[in-house]
Amino acid sequence: MVETRKVQVTGGSTFTVSIPKEWATENDVSAGSVVEFYPEGDSLFLAPTNGDERTEGSLDVTDLTGDELTRAVMTMYVSGFDIITLESSRITTDQRRTIRQATQSLVGLEVLEETRDTVVIRDLLDSAELSIHTAVRRMRLIALSMLSDAVEALAELDTDMARDVIQRDDDVDRLWMVVSRIFRATLRTPKAAEELGLPREVCFDYQSAARQLERVADHATKIAHLTLEFEKPIPEEVVDALAELHEEARTIIDDGMDALLADDSDEATRLANEARESVQVIDERARKIDELLRDLDPARAQLLGLIVDSVSRSADYGGNIAETALQKAAPTP
């Protein structure tokens, strides 16, 4: 419910405004409490000062095992809890192993304490050290290298390279979790955005782009898995066509990311529009490859069709990044 207050002048030069009593009570604000103000454009955010800024959360894991338990730990991490207590009447050996594996897959988390019925996990990474900008740039490098190596592994049927691509997907997932955690923190408190030195709208743009890069990495992983199913070399004309398709897709993703990270709005708009227009070229190239696949046996043609689809979708994700860059470069209302 929106409440309004009238600004008053006290002491001849000081502007004052009262705060709603209900909000003050819910947030333990009373006479003598210290509150913080955060300016953001033409808005001013107020928040109570919290002496202990580390947030704690607990979760009953009695009925959680395997992937469900892993997802629960990841959800608590992304939600922004700094100290996570997992509780049960008795935590099994398998649960402890799953918790340790989940913890190792997340940046900054370590198991702090273990007892018969609890496992305490703590985020040891200082929030000031986190950079959503750096994380997204790192995701870009890894995702694009994965896509390139996946296509090369297919061309050469290099199973070692394909398995390496699959392993690198974990690195992208870790960075994606970091980006999501930082972004949610900026939604929860204006102080997080101030510490990052970025407006919350920009954090949203980075988070949107990171999601697309995570999908590019997933499709590179899919191509690598499919590569392991081939026993005979791929026809050279199909390999060359796929290489051209990949180069177009990579250029679209690169241009989209360059547009997103550009400081000049005119340059960002130019790059983003070029990337979006190139997506149409991708569709045409993909159709030509599909025609080449008609001469192959159905099983191989189906596998290669899935790979063509993954490369094409990666280009689409680059187009989505370009769309985000256009929105970022647009005038702010």
Automatic annotation (TrEMBL):
One of its GO terms (biological process) is intracellular phosphate ion homeostasis. SMART domains: SpoVT_AbrB. It comes from the Archaea. GO terms for molecular function: DNA binding. Residues 9-54 form the SpoVT-AbrB domain. PANTHER family: PHOSPHATE REGULATORY PROTEIN-LIKE PROTEIN, PHOSPHATE-SPECIFIC TRANSPORT SYSTEM ACCESSORY PROTEIN PHOU. This is Phosphate uptake regulator. It comes from Halobellus limi.
